[in-house]
Amino acid sequence: MSDSDSLDPTQYRANRLKSLELLRESGINPYSEAPRNIISIRHFISKYAYLSAGEKLEAIEVSLAGRVITKRASSSKLYFYELLDGGARVQVMADARDSAMDTVAFSTYHSGVKRGDIIAICGYPGKSKRGELSIFPRSLEVKALCLHMLPRRLAVVDGTRTQSSQGTTTNGTWTPGDARNPAAYVLTDQETRYRQRYLDLMINPEVQNVFRTRTRIIKYIKRFLDDLEFLEVETPNMNLTAGGASARPFTTYYNELDTNVHMRVSPELYLKMLVVGGFNRVYEIGKVFRNEGMDQTHCPEFTMCEFYMAYADYNDLMDLTEQLLSGMVKELTGSHKIRYHANGSDNEPIEMDFTPPFRKMDILSELERVANINIPRDLSSEAANKYLLDVCEKFDVKCPPPHTTARLLDKLVGHFIEVSCINPTFIINHPEIMSPLAKSHRSAPGLTERFNLFVNKIELCDAYTELNDPVEQSRRFTEQLKDRTSGDDEAMVLDESYITALEYGLPPTAGFGMGIDRLTMLLTDSQNVKEAILFPPMRPQ
Predict the structure, then answer these.
(1) What is the CATH number of the domain that holds 92?
(2) Model pLDDT, residue 5
(3) Where is the Aminoacyl-transfer RNA synthetases class-II family profile domain (predicted)?
């Protein structure tokens, strides 16, 4: 351990700031421009992995750049670094005999290089006598100083650091769909990890792979929909009415329009307007904003994928959902089965199977069967409301006011049905009172052609055959208004512009919505949604 590493963090930063000032006074720019002809460490590893132990290609010039993760001095004339960039690591063997500096200048300069610094190297490839692929610098230059002390211990995965003579990758043995162990990370404090995600990514390299997996998930969805001739579109983030979902919106003020507007809770209504306009298959992946609580699976700002398909119904979408998710899991993990710490990281992970077909449950029939109750058929009646309220009290199911029938049903379904949905399960045929935008069921009065997909007790998808009757849609909005007046600020509001669009004729259409953050949670063994969001919202410090 160097003398500087024994300092407290405040003194360490003060010393580094002083070093920065001395560099500038001596005419050295500590933040100079990027070097030319840099290649990635991954490319370097793949290109020169064939070398034999002790073999060096001194006639070849290679330029690398990255962050110093470890540093070790064998003597004043030989320094070893580990360089990290783009998810890969490589050893740097800086020998004074390869440098244009004299030995005193060489030792002085390398003594000033610290862990965390960004450096650029021009040198030649080779392998050490022990067979580790390395770059041997002829020149090494610090391009950006890290002013803060980094944790001493190397990042580990499952208790080991994965390394070979071919170079090192930062994800160790972890792959999407497998279990993770964040307790083994170097940086474990969640507050620090989420507030300073750059530090989390730097110190806990497995986290990089979590977010690379998130990107792969989004790319897979886009490719899947593009191959089915869907058109990717963008719709407004600020709306005059917060329609498309039962949720409380964020509200802001639009100065130029001199009016209050709402951050969108869903892009649904705009996307269906595009179907009216002739885009028969459209999708959007983007942020939505719901001014509600935060917990392990809920975040007020989250990413949704929504798509709408003309001349289709919810049966078609169940088939598409099975194809999309089973295919994605297979491509990302190599299997239809994934492991997930559903009961906390201290317990053994469970296995979830995405092999199609997925299980189906009829929502009311299953609720009556499991709870041994008999729900009144007229769910709009006072008798049905009182019956469901009594059931909640009997089974100690908490439902904060207002006690609308839709809210009571939702709480009972969560208590009795959702808890059994570990493998992917479709809960189908929701009552109209719970589904203001869904089309009435073709053979079951009072119900709709809607499904939710649950995995590990968490709702992942919501989809339905779209209601395209403007008169009936207006009536449904009016019913929602009654819930709002009773205190349910998550009930939908009337959107006249959407009704007008329906009056021009919406083809028979099916619509689908899926949370990207929750899907990423499942495929990366993340028990907190903040693990799947690069910069999650945090309470002010």
Answers:
(1) 2.40.50.140
(2) 62
(3) 211-540
